[in-house]
Structure formats: structure tokens, C-alpha cells
Design a protein that fits this description.
The chain has helices spanning 11-22, 26-37, 41-68, 76-83, 85-117, 125-142, 144-170, 175-181, 183-186, 197-210, 227-256, 259-264, 268-277, 281-313, 331-347, 349-378, 393-412, 414-449. With 450 residues, it is an all-alpha fold. The protein has a single domain (11-449), classed as Amino acid/polyamine transporter I (Up-down Bundle), CATH 1.20.1740. The longest helix has 36 residues, at 414-449. It is globular. The two termini are 32 Å apart.
Length: 450
Amino acid sequence: MSGQLGKRLGLPFAIAVCIGLVVGTGIMRTPGEIANMVPDPATVMLLWLAGGLYVLLMANVAAEISSAIPRSGGHYIPVREGLGDAMGLLVGWTMWIAGVAATAFLAIAAAEFFGLIVPAAADHEAIVALIILCGVTALNWAGVEEGRWAQIASTALKLALLLAVVFVALMMPDGESAGEIAAPAASSGIPAEPLSIITVLAGLQFIVTVYDGWYASIYFAGEDKDPGRNIPRSLFQSAIVVTFIYLAINWALITALDFETLRASTLPMAQVIEAATGRWGTLVVAVIAVLMALGTLNAAIMMNPRTLFGMAEDGLFLKTALSVNRGGTPTVALALGFIVAVPLIFSGGYVFVFRLVGAMILFASCLFVLSYFALRVRQPDLERPYRAKGHPVLPALVLLINFALLASFVIAEPFSGAIMAGMIAICIPVGLYLQRQRRLAAKAEKLVSS
């Protein structure tokens, strides 16, 4: 069967996949890293709040364009519709490559934490990661229903576990007690960088990355039973939940741990649980981290094939990517993601790919918002179940934020900026060529029919 994605999904899944893709192992490590980059508790909390506000601003744009064009494919769909084949091709490839790299990273992360639970597995990290990747891929190969329920259950479980950690941290009798347990880690005395615009921007850029994945439900718009209602609701509701969770976690850690201890910690949650239980902190956090990585991996594996499917529908990828099994899974597109992820796991190449696409993801976000303005101009009569609030001020504001983050990233990572320019240079002529070929084919078909 090809070219058919069933209307099987609803609001619970849409919310679960957004939260599930955002809330992963990153929140286990980043509170300490952010505290070290921006060594002021109040500023740290404000930056995490700013990250949530950024997501809400982006959701305001995404809710309009993805509910107005309810096709599965994510960022690619409105960018290609509003800005043409060349930019659509660029965004589609960028998001797919980033997604595949993410699956390799998440499988490795799950294997790494699993090695803390079962020490014998620590010496075979890549093999364990491959087994994990195979298992989650097989689950989604079976069908969308299996992936949907796995996502809802895993998201509910990870939220419950994180709230439990927050509760334990807030019940600590004295933040100093946790600091005393972690004293050796903090005793090295990490010198604090002076608070400045540069450090704040660096921290915000890092936090925006931790919030990445907020858009997951738009990749399934064509499979949602009521995309006009469910896509906007899922984007806003999940953004609010994630912002609350991230603020609660950071507030709890700042409260439970001495701030200098938090700055020095690579796994602050483990220190909190260790302070509460006496010795089980690392093991408990490892179990939580494995479960969180598996939930995020499931979301990524479900999402990635939709990009190739959307591109194939428009003739920008192989038509075989339209193959869909009885369970509603794009099997060829799913298999291609698996095939590319496996060598990344064994080579460690996902780290290189992540650095490479960091600027590209920000560039894709800029094009995504630009497509909103393009669609407003080119298709003013398009039915829009949700219309972005504060037009044009709020969409323009988030566009400026994305450009600022992109510029700061390229300045910090000039190599990534050069690669981005190279990808644009390749995609533009390819996209224009494919667009021209389709126009010629359409004219020929019209002449034959007449």
C-alpha cells in the first residue's frame, strides 16, 4: 500500500509526542551546565522561563500554518508551500538528518545509562544501543497504534518520575545537606564567568536547544482526526507543561543543592536522590534516564519518516517512501532512517552531525516563520482554523529572535555556518531544477489531455 496515512491520532497523542520529544535526558544534565554558564540563580530561572516563552511564540506561528495545511511532514510542508521547492528541500533534508542523528544519540544515551544499571553492558555500549534502536523501530514498524500507546504511556511515566524528583528535592530539610554530600565535586572551585550579555545569550541558546522538539505534533497533522483543533491545542498545552516542569526541576535543584554544588555537577538529580536515600542516587537516576531516553527515542522514530513521506508526495524524494503498511507506518522511510542511524551509532558520527546541523536547525526555524508571512501574502484566503495572535508583531518578534540566535551560533561556530552556506548552495539549484521539471511535466500532460 502506498500514499495513505490513516486518520488514527488525536489530542492525547499529540500532547504526548510533543512533551515526549522535548523532555529527555537533556534535562538530567543541563541544569548544572546552565548554572555554570550563568552563575546567578535568579538569571538561571529567568532564562528557563524565557525558553518557555520562546516556545509559545513559535507555537503561535506553527499552530496557524500547520492547522491550515494539515499534512504530515513537519517543517517541510509550510516552507515548501510558502517559499518554494528549494527552501522546502533544504528544510526537509535538514530536519530529517537532525532527526536521524537524534535517534543515534538517544540510543547511545539509553545504553550509557543502562550500563550504570547493568555494569556488564557498559563494555558493549554500541551493541546495546543497536538492540535498543532495533526494538523501538520494530515496535513502530508494527503500526501507529503501537507507537501511539507507547508514547502516551512513556510520557506519562517520565512526567511522574520527574515530579517525584522535584518532590524529593523540595522535601530536603536543608540545601546545605546535599551540598555536604557533594562537597568533593564542588571543591574544585569552578571560576565564575562575569554575568554579561554574551553569557546570557549563550545560556539562552543552550536552553532553546533543550526545549527543541516542541513541534512534534505538526509532523502528524495529516494523521490527526481533527488537526484544526488538536494541533494548536497540543502545541500550547505541551509548551505550558514543559515550561512548568523545567522551571520546577531547576527551582527544586537550586533549593536542594548549594548553588556552587549545582554548578559543578554533571548529574545533579543523582546528588539530590543520593542525599535523600544515602547511596541509591545514581542508580535511580539511571533508571529514570533510560525510561526518558526510550520515550524520546520512540517519538523521534515515529516522527522522522513523516518528513521523507511529505517530500515524496511532492516529488522531492523517492516515491517508494510513500509505502505504508497496514498499521499505518511509512515502512520504507522508517527503514531508511534506521539504516542511516546504525553507522552513526558505531562511528560516533552523530556528534559531528549534531554540530553540523545546529546552525541548520536555527536556519530552518527562520524559514519556518518566514513561510508564515509568505502564506499570509500568497494565500490570504486559505482557511485558517487558528490565526496567530498578535499578527504581525509577535511572529516578527520570534523571527528576530531566531535570526539573533542563528547569528550568534554562526559567530561561535563558523565551520557550521560554512557548511550551512554549502547546503543552501546545493539545495537551491536542485530545488529549482525539480520545480522546473514538474512544470514541464504538467504542461505536457495538459497538452496531451487537450
